[in-house]
Amino acid sequence: MPATLTSNIRALTSFASFSLALLMAIVPVAASAEKADREKPTHIEADSLLHDELKQVSIFTGRAVLTRGTMVMRGSRIEMRQDADGYQFGTILPEPNKRAFFRQKREGNDEFMEGEALRIEFDGKADRIKLIDNAEVRRFRGAVLSDTMSGKLIIYDNLTDVFSIDGQRTSEGGKAGSGRVKAVLAPRSNPLDKP
Predict the structure, then answer these.
(1) Which of 4, 25, 51, 124 lies at a CB distance of 3.0 to 4.6 Å from 87, suitable for a disulfide?
(2) Contacting residues for 145 by C-beta, under 8 A, at least 6 apart
(3) pLDDT of 80-103, one tens digit each?
(4) Distance in angstroms (rounded) separating the CA atoms of residues 20 and 84
(5) Burial class (CB in 10 A: 0-12, 13-18, 19+), 28
(6) Which pLDDT belongs to residue 36?
(7) If phi over 0 gives left and psi between -120 and 50 gives alpha, with beta otherwise, what is residue 85?
(8) Is 75 exposed, middle or buried (0-12, 13-18, 19+ CB in 10 A)?
(9) 117-138: burial string, b at 16+ Cβ within 10 Å, e else
(10) How many CA atoms lie within 13 A of 168 on its CB side?
């Protein structure tokens, strides 16, 4: 491979990594996500990268994995873009017959949040992450599964420290379907109850 081509690929990969690092710094996965992750470098592996400098779009395809501190995101395709104001947006799409995936440690305790959906979207301007279609979020306390929630759309809004789940499905023609929100919430132990 010619040296010029190799240096161009490295430059594009560096720019895309920097763009993703900026995105992840302003869009944590959960309201109480590990704060130290914001200072960590972003590592991305994929089978290929296509970067369009004019459109400010980077597309990672083929077993794409993004890691940053305790955060891990996986899919078949990760597409990142930046608007004229510098806000960044991203989409993760899964491999066939799978869901896109994320996992991140929660701040100050031994808990992890992980989620899966047919599509995961980041909105850097609104500081929000959306899990769309066949969406599920799980909370682990240590290695033990504690809570699970699922629905059509799960939204984490970092600015208000709120997440919402919508179970309604819209069928062809705009009529509401039979989608429901489902949740299993484990009781939290009370430290005063322990001997």
Answers:
(1) 124
(2) 138, 139
(3) 887 888 777 789 999 999 999 988
(4) 16
(5) buried
(6) 63
(7) alpha
(8) buried
(9) bebbbbbbeebbbbbbeebbbb
(10) 5
Where do the H-state alpha helices sit in 27-90? none
Closest CA to 163 of 178, 153, 177: 153
- Rounded Cα distance, 179 and 114, in Å: 22
Place of tokens 């395809």: 61
Which residue type is seen at 186? A
Strands (E), the chain: 43-45, 48-52, 57-68, 71-82, 88-93, 100-105, 111-117, 119-123, 128-141, 144-157, 162-166, 182-184
- The CATH superfamily assigned to 3-187 is Lipopolysaccharide (LPS) transport protein A like domain (2.60.450.10)
Strand partners, 78: 60, 92
Residue indicated by tokens 């600015």: 159
End-to-end CA distance of the chain: 67
Q: What is the pTM of this model?
A: 0.70
Residue type at 151 in one-letter notation: G
**DSSP H or E segment with residue 20:** helix 3-26
Residue 51 CA, distance from chain mean position = 20
Distance of CA 85 to the CA centre of its chain: 22
